[in-house]
Every structure is written in C-alpha cells, then in structure tokens.
Design goal:
alpha+beta, Aminopeptidase, 7-stranded mixed β-sheet, 6 helices
C-alpha cells in the first residue's frame, strides 16, 4: 500500500468524497438485495453535510483520497449508533473496516459518553456480520428498514473510555 492509511475526523469539505465513496461501496449491497434504492444510495449531499456537522464522522485516507468512512451518533438512551461503515472495494480485507469501527466506538464512548453500541446490517451481508461478530457484537433482533431490506440489529456494551486509548 505504499502510503499508510490514516483515520481522522471528517469535516464538511469531505462530504462529497464521502458520498461518492458510499455510493461506490454500497453497490454490492444493492446487488445482493436486488434493490438499488437502499438508503445509502439515495442519500443527498446536504444530508451528508448535516451528519458531519451533527455527528461523529471519521474518514480513512490513503494519501489525499478518502478510502473509508463511518458515522456515529448517540440516541436518547445513551447508545452509540454506528452507521454507514464503508471501505473502498480495492482495500477491503486489510482490517480497515475494523479500524474505522474502533475509531467511531472510541469517539462515541469518550466524546459522547455512549454506554453501548448499536448498529445494523442486511441479513444477507455475511462479510459485515463476520466483522461485527469479531468486534464483539451480538444480534439482538431484526427489523425491516425504510428501503424494505431485512436488517439484523447488533449491540455490544461500551468498555470504559480509557480502554480505547491504546487500540485506536
């Protein structure tokens, strides 16, 4: 990989690159479900900008190129909600998704005092399910998303905030 991949907080100037990456990354999910109207493919640039302003959004960069992204927020119950984790197809399988997941978990625990983490993925998305299970998530239910895809809901407890210092 020559240049190392760095992970940092996104800023509003990254919105367009994040949206383009998201569109590229979620094509395989759309194909898997035969549904090209899934939420990540119909999101607008303005809504990505709003998410960056309101939530924790991290990007992975290879040089100047955004090659990964993840978003996190905290709900009314104090749970960190993790969403839209994506890694450029050419860089998958190198641990970048796990690094992004750890980064957003650390941010949610340290900056937003999340007590647990929640995320979801499509029920046929075996690679995603493997990643989340390896990261300690357990399935807690199912739900049908607004785009009609059956989602597996996963959760795990947030460790003490200082637990992330060495691993992030």
């Amino acid at each position: 990989m020559g240049t190392s991949v760095t992970i940092s907080a996104a800023d509003v100037r990254d919105a367009e690159e994040i949206l383009k990456l998201q569109y590229l990354c979620f094509q395989s999910e759309a194909e898997l479900y035969g549904n090209y109207r899934i939420d990540p493919l119909v999101q607008t640039l303005d809504s990505v900008r709003a998410e960056i302003a309101e939530n924790l959004v991290y990007v992975a960069r290879l040089g100047d190129e955004v090659v990964g992204s993840v978003r996190g927020s905290v709900d009314e119950e104090g749970a960190g909600r993790i969403d839209r984790l994506c890694v450029h197809p050419r860089l998958r399988g190198h641990g970048l998704g796990a690094r992004l997941l750890r980064a957003v978990e650390a941010g949610l625990a340290d900056e937003r005092a999340a007590t647990r983490f929640r995320l979801h993925t499509g029920h046929r998305s075996e690679g995603n399910l493997r990643l989340y299970r390896r990261a300690g998530y357990a399935a807690v239910g199912n739900a049908t998303s607004s785009d009609g895809v059956m989602m597996v809901l996963l959760e795990k407890e947030a460790p003490a905030p200082s637990a992330y210092v060495a691993s992030a």
